[in-house]
Every structure is written in structure tokens, then in C-alpha cells.
Fold these 3 entries.
Entry 1:
Amino acid sequence: MDLAEYSKCDGVALADLVRRGDVTPKELAHLLVEAVEKVNPTINAVLEVYLDRVEVSDDKSISDGPFLGVPFLMKDIGAGEKGRHQESGSKLMQGHVADNDSFLTTFFKKAGLTLLGRTTTPEFALGISTESELVGVTHNPWNPNITSGGPSGGAAASVAAGIVPIAHGSDNGGSIRIPASACGLVGLKPSRGRVTLGPDIGELWPGMLQEFVLSRTVRDTAVMLDAVSKPVLGDPFIIKQPDNLYVHELNAPTGKMRIAWTTDPWQPDGTVDSEVVNCVEQVVSQCEEAGHEMVQVSPTFDYEEYLHAVCVAWAFGVHMGMDMFASIMGRKVSEETVEPVMLSFYEYSRRLTAVDMFMAEFALNQFRRNFGEFFQQYDLLLTPTLNKLPEPHGKYSKMRKDLGYEEYMRLCEETKVHTTAANVTGQPAITLPLGQSRSGLPIGIQFMARFGEEDTLIRLSSSLEKEMPWHHRIPPIHASR
């Protein structure tokens, strides 16, 4: 197998080749190294390759799971691996080493993946562009002058550029879906509680955080969801389990669904790029041709109340966590160790009270109830993933000194307001690379389903993957070129 063939296969295809004996896990590991050497100097997406593991990668040391021998990269925050660096994109955490395998990491290994390195993230995974003082800027393989999205921007750029077919990500306000949209990938945020955050965490950011992966195909997404969405003893709750394996939903009949759709920016005075609007309308037409009932309607809510509540919910207690990390690393939270916007985030957190959090949770509860009522009438909600096309580096950098935490959050929400809603409600949402701009940039479209109904998303996504395929689109910066 050469690099061109490797970089165009999805994870399931590579695992099938390993089982047939056409390629070995060690050969795949060497192809990952070759791909990193070829494209990473341009995109700066991979922080570290575990070269010690490359030479011992063989099918005897790997679990015989659905991704047998497939190279995989971990995001530099969230699920960790014992003995490996995890620095959270921050100088405050530089040199930090994880002290255990998270449950999700264990599931990745049981799935047969070979964990071979880690990818970039902005400092403490805040923001929609992957830029940090510690590791620099991660560039988009479609155009190195624009953002790859974030915070899972290193994962997205790695998958889009053909380094790996699938990579770990986490999503607290769109952190999987934003970079997936910017880089032309499939990005699913599972339902709240679908993927365990243990053992160190039960829930985080008032239930908004979920971890999963970014991929090129709906097939890899479905197979991975089967592999890692397993309840673990001690999880805060166990949500509705699917009736069938998610992989069985691939190519399954969707039936006629009632789908709400909107290009409303949701922000007062907000806008949606005309090319994004056109892409949404094309997808609406495709869904109508498939027999679905499409209704142009949008949930309504008090945006200012919602944004303030999200700001409080994300910030509450953050200062204590940062102080704890600083103590572990023998450092202090200061201008020397954290970026300006992150320092503002820290100070904002210190000023919050229990009453602030109580009122924020009250507002978020109202938001969730509102969406719950809305989804009594519709099976899905179709929206832009991002209101704007990927933009040049710098605008969303947390190194900016002219923005405080709340101003920064408002700026980000201008672009990704539709993604955060699913984190607040806990509902599953997926972005699919269903369009391209005139300049060739990917445009992602988001579908949001009822709580616990990832199966609905997989069925529809599989259908759209056939009717509006994207696999022929290869970015200019790619391991096969």
C-alpha cells in the first residue's frame, strides 16, 4: 500500500485490508509517519507522533475490533492516555502527563485503533480557531491562510489532509462540528451521556460536553459510535440505548420525516453568508426529492438571556480548575502562563456566585424545554453548521488583548450559534460536508435530532452521503498529492 491509497481509505476499509493480510498495522503506522512528514509542516495539526509505538505496532498487540490496526490521533485535551503528554494547548500545562487511561481511551483501544499521537487544540479548548501561544496556528488543508476551526482543529486538519481516516475530538459548543464543517468532514456530537467521560469526570460544563470523533465517512462514524457508546458503572445516568447497532442504520430506509429548516442567524442583527444559505436550500431541495416534509421554521428564544447563561455556565468554577492545574504544574495563573482572553475567562469565573449559576441554569432549563416542545412537532432541525465560511487566522485568537471573555464569546457565536444549542439541550447533532463555496471551501450542514436519536441522524446522513457525495473532494494540501 502506498500513501495515496492509504490516505483515501476510511477506517473500516483499512481494517478490512489488515484482516485480509494485505497490509499490517505496522505498515499503516509507517504510512501515518510518512503522511505527517509530508503535510504537517504546512498545516501544523499533529503535535507529537509516538514513534516508540510505531515499531511495535502489530496485530498481536492490538485488539481485534472493527478498526483493527487503524492509526488514530488523540486531541490534546479530554480523554487521555496514561504516560502520554496532554498539555491542553496551554503554557500553564506544558509538560503535563496523563496519569490514567480514560474509559473512552480504553474503548478506542478495544476497537483496535493504534493510538499514534496527539493533535493541536486552542488553549483549554476555548474558541473556534486552533491557535495558541504554545503550539502556534493550525492551518486548513483547503487553504492554509484560513482557520481549520476549533477546538478540535488539529484533529480535523489531520483527517482532511489524509494523515488519519478518523481522529478523537470533543464538543462543548460545537468543537467537533465547527472544524468538521471548516475542513469538509463528518462530525457528530452524540447525545448527553451517550459516551462516558469517566473515570475522572461524570459531567462537565453543565452537561454540555461530549467526546467522540471526526471522520470522512458516515460509515466510520456509525461503527465508532457502536464501539464507544457503552454505559460504564458509575456514570451519572444511562440514556436510552438504541434498538439496533448504528452500523445497521447505514443505507436503512429513512421513512418520510418532518424536518424543520432555517437560515435564521438567531442573533439580533446577525447574518448568514449567502453561499451558506444557498447550500442549505440545496439540501432542503434534496430532502424534498427524497419525500421528506420540509417546513421553514425556527425555534424562538431570548438570545441575550441565552448567551449570558451559556457564558456563566461555561465559566462557573473554571478558576478553581485552573488554580488546581497551576498547583500541579508548580506555576501560577498569570499573563506569563495563559493567553489574554483566557485570563479574562479566569477573572470572570472568580467573580461568579452560586446565585449567578442558579439563574443561568434556570435560563438554560427554559431553553431546553423550549426546544423539547419544538421537537414534538419535527423529527429533525436543519441549520447551517457555521453562519460564515472559514475566515483568516487571528480574528478568533485568544491572544487578542482587545477582547474580554464575554466579548470573545459573542464574537464566536456570530459564526457558530447553531452548534451550541445542541450542547445546551443535550440532543445529538451532526454536520455533513454537503456543499462548497465558489472558492472551493467546504460548507457543512447541521442536522439536530431528538434526544437519544442518533439512529435517525445516521440513517439520513447515510442517504445524503449517497445522493450528495463528498468523497471525491480532496483538499490541495493532502497526503495523496
Entry 2:
Amino acid sequence: MKTPPEPSRNSAPRNPLQRRDILKTLGLGAAGAAAAAVLPAGGEAQAMESPQEQVKTRYRETEHVKRFYALNRL
């Protein structure tokens, strides 16, 4: 039974940039870009409603709403 030859000590050094390292770097870069896209740009959001619109009634119990509630009782 033959044993495989030992690598010589004078052989060229391995490429430090291996395939797995490249894939890890690409994955981390993509995750960082996605996180940066989700972060808010700054400042608080302002309401687009005027003071008159903020106090107006929004919910009205009309006939079709009453019928919906009547039909969906348990």
C-alpha cells in the first residue's frame, strides 16, 4: 500500500482568499446593505392632516355596518 507523497515545504503558499471567505464576505455585505436600506433617514415623520381633519369623526355606524355586526354575532 502506497502512502501519498508529503507536500514539499518549498511549495507555493495557498491563496489566502478562499471560496468560502468570498462567499462570507458577499453575504455579510448583502446583509449590511439590506440593514442600511431599512434604517430611517432621520427626523420624525410629520402628520399630513390639518387640525380640522384631526378632529373630524372617522367612524360612522351606518346601516350596512349595523347589518355586518348583526350577521357576524356569535
Entry 3:
Amino acid sequence: MATDPSTSSASPWRQAWYPVAFLRDLDPRRPTAFTLLEQDLVLWFEETSQRWRAFADVCPHRLVPLSEGRLNGAGELECPYHGWTFNGDGHCTAIPQARDGSRISRNSDCRSYATATAQGLLFVFSGDAAAAADHPLPLVPVLQEQGQGWADGWVVQDTFRDLPMDALTLLENVLDVSHVPFTHHATVGRRENAGPVELELTSFGPEGFTSLWPEGPRRGKLGSQTTTYAAPCLMWHELTAKGFARILTVVYATPIRRGECRLFARFPFQFNSPWPGRLLGLRPQWLQHLGNHVVLEDDQLFLHWQERVLEQRGGSAAAVRRFHLPTSADLNIRALHDWVNRYGGEPFPGQRLPPREGLVPLMERYEAHTRHCRSCAGAHRRLPPLRTAAGGVALLALLVAAWCGPGWWGALALAVAAGAAVLRWQCLRWLDQLRRGSGVPPRNRP
């Protein structure tokens, strides 16, 4: 009888590198918590080795989370409860309650996970650190780093978000090229661009699969598109729009726990002209992220529902039978579930999904993204005082207008008051968007 590959300690999900954060969003001065495959981790930067470290987020002494601690004057991780300290290898270097000269046993050490940095991401290996060297990092080959940027003219926009769905559900969604004109109508798609999608599977194996869409999106206007699934967590689409740019859509699905994953999305462009890249660079990253949220929320509501319906009907093992897949547009979906059933299994075999969430928690953005993002958290801090200042300017300008009365100076003061009032309103709107989504996708707006 065939065995479920996910139940083995050698499961691809349990022996893989996963991104856990963009490096720019990590603060090297303090520890950060993250959960990978239900394993609570503490991420911290060791100054002496100039390396990011990942430990099990539990002190061996009294089992409190080390992520609530600090980096002490020696640059080591210090437990917040009793001050036990640990070096980058996980060895306990000090127990303040012990007598001078006391031997510190190996039982006082922390479990250390293998880490690596590449392409602006911090990766953690989910299995035994000794096995990490045998597994390559899941990287996009065409993206080569150059200094603080990218070689070969690549312009890369990034975002991330914790999503209320399984990593497999996310992968299934982003591998599906035919939903874009409908689900994302009025954001990144148009219903009128929908049409037959004739996909061809070009490779398949334990490492994942590749496929080709000869016509490509928008009824061939953007050129052929290739898709790569690098098991278990990475996929990307690639096309070259003649006369405009080479374009990739890259998604990592990092499993947190059953029914929850962290999405890392990258949008690399290799423009034929330098001007589009320069224009993209003018927009603050936090404003870009607000737009990304809208696109992500386009399908977040019904995917959260859909995966529970699939679970009731047999889960991934039964997906190809329970789904009705009459066209080649669903070839990538078939291939993903075929890979799961043949090679990978599910990341959390045998576990039930948590209860379905309502609209408010599904549209929550602050915990899912804003507080973890350097740019968005910074905007969240700066906007309230800016709003207060704008209100003060508006009031002062109105007083000046009343003092000056009719005339050029009075009109100018009224214009300043109006502009400041609009800015005050916009700050409030931005703050709300950093905290939550509307729950009304653009495709359904009047």
C-alpha cells in the first residue's frame, strides 16, 4: 500500500528552505518571532558573526519565548525571564543563578536552525540543520544581486502578507492563470481579456513541474508565458512583452500552521526603457503595498471558504476528482495535486482546518502585514502627527483668510486650507487602509 509522503520526517515540506522575512524588514537590534510549520522560532542577528540566527523560540530553563527577550551588551540572545544567554550556535553561555565556575550542560542549549540569506530574503531550513547543505535554496535563477540592487537592469517590487489559507491553497491559486480576468477585474485584470487557455506541461518530477502557455495573457498581446513550480514552496510565471519588458510574477508560500501561510510576492521587471523603472521608484513602498493588499483580497474571501469545502470532500488527495476540470486551463492545478499525491504530501497531514473566519478578521491588515513591514509600520507612525499638523494648518489658513478678506491673499489662504483639509482626510483614509481592507473587491463595485 502506498504511504503518504508527508507523514515521513523526510517529507519535502519538512526538509526544505523557506523565506521567513525580507531582510529590510528585520531589525538587527532585537529578536523577532516567526512560526514555520508550527515550529515557533526566534530570529536574531549575531553581531560577532554578522549572521542571522534562528532558534526554537523556547528557553530550555522555564520554556518562555526567547523572542520576548533582548540582545545584551555582548550581542548574545538573553532570555527575558531569568537572563540566561545564548550565542549564535545555541550554546548557553551564562546562567546568572549559577555559582561562578559552574559547568553549563548541553541540556541548557537551544535548538538552532540553519539560516541563509539571498535575494534580499532570510531563509530558514525546516529540518535538521545538518541536512541543510544537501538542499539548494529556492531562488529565481534570473535574479542576480548587484550591490544593494539587482544586476541586468531588473526592477523588483516586493510585498508579503500572512494569509488565512493553507500554503497549498495559495499555490493552487497563483498557479491558476485563468482566474485573473475575472477575480482581478478592475485591479490587474479585465473580463474582456478572458479566453481559452491552452496550457502544455513541459516537465514534471519530484522537484516540481513547468508548463507553457503559448498564446499568453490578454489573448496573446503580452507574448507566451512559462510557469515554474519549484517544490514545495516557490512558483513563478515569466513572459516577455515585446517592446515593453520582461516580466515575472514570483510567489513563495511559507506554511505557518494549518490554514495559515505567509506569502512573499515579487514582481521583477526588465524594462526596455529606463523611465518606467524610475517612475515606479518614485512611489513609496507603503503605498505600493496598499495596492497589493487590494489585489490579494480580491480572492482571499472565497479561497478561505473553498479550501474548507475541499476538505469536507476529501482534501488534496481527492481534489482532481472533486473539482470539475474540463479544460486545459486547469493543467497547473492538476499538476500541483499530482505532485502532492505522488511526492510531497500535504504540509499538515491529518490536521483539520480551523473554523471559517468572518469578514472582519479576513480583512485585517495590521497584524497580517503592517506591523511586520518597515515601510508600512513607519507610515503608520508618521501619519497621525501629519494628520494633526494638516488640521492645524487648515485652521490657521482659515483664520488668515478671514483676516485678509476678499482678494488674492485671502484666496490663497483658502486654497491652502482646502489642501490641508484634503491631506488630513487622506491621512485618515491611509491609516484605515493600513489596518484593514474594505471587503468589497473592485470587480463588484458599482
